[in-house]
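Supplementary Methods S3. Input chains for the assembly prediction are listed below.
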Amino acid sequence: MRIRKATVKDFKKVKDIKTEFMFWEAKRDKGIDPEKIKKVPFVLRGKLKNKDMAFFLAEEKGEVIGFAWAEKQKNKFFWTKYPFKGYLHDLYVKKEYRKKGIGKKLINECFKWFKKKKFKYWEVGVHAWNIGAKKLYQKKGFEEHIVWMRQIKK
Amino acid sequence: MIIRQAKKQDLKQIAELDLVLAMEISRKDFFKKDETILKKMEKPYLYRDFKNKNNIFFVAEEKKQIIGFAGGHIKTNLKFFKIKKVGFIREIYVKPSHRHKGLGQKLMREIIRYFKNKKIKVAQLTVLTNNQPAFKLYQSLGFEENRKKMVRRI
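Predicted structure tokens for the full assembly:
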């Protein structure tokens, strides 16, 4: 199992795993429309070229079994102490390969990439129902900061 | 005490309360905002927001004094979401001297009713994890946790 940073040449691999991840999310988050997901990953080509973004692929015998997508984001003007932050957009490991420490390793690679860019903090969003992800991030030193709340009128 | 939609003449008073709110939040947050910039930019941003047709402001008025206000924003979601438009409650503030009288609930209800009249069925907001009073207010109105933002200082 090895982890490496994706380049534009890996477009198809990144698109496939990202699409798989979005379908996985759509099953659990009723708000996402699976029909529309097919179109989204095509913007990935541009993102792979973007120096403020990094995609890391976890590969086993040449097959992609997980990925992480990290981004250097600009903060709004009043955060003068923290002009930039690291944002972990996505983290996904295929079901059969979970509980093997791959998620942690992917996060570590993101950390290394962030450190090079000298941020002071980084952020990750996690679904309220995703207890596994929340525990993983807590183990990696993340704490809850903000909660998104929703009210649906029927 | 009446609750009504804000008018242009109310902006001056709202601006004062909005600044107090911004400072309060910044102090509760472990990421502090630059207060000098907040003080300078808060008013122009508020005046600009007021003109935006996707925004709505309600005020609680007693004896010609504005003792509380709430601001909402109608957001259009990205294409792959099933729900096209979401009502976002951006800020809510009640003067400390007038708290614990149910004003927070009343202001929230007005905004949610406004969204409902615009056929928007989903209301969203964000709240700092350590802001217990606000969290309880939202829970009492039927808001549920949807996503969490976690942070890690480097």
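Residues 11-28 of chain A form the longest helix (18 residues). The mean pLDDT of chain A is 89.
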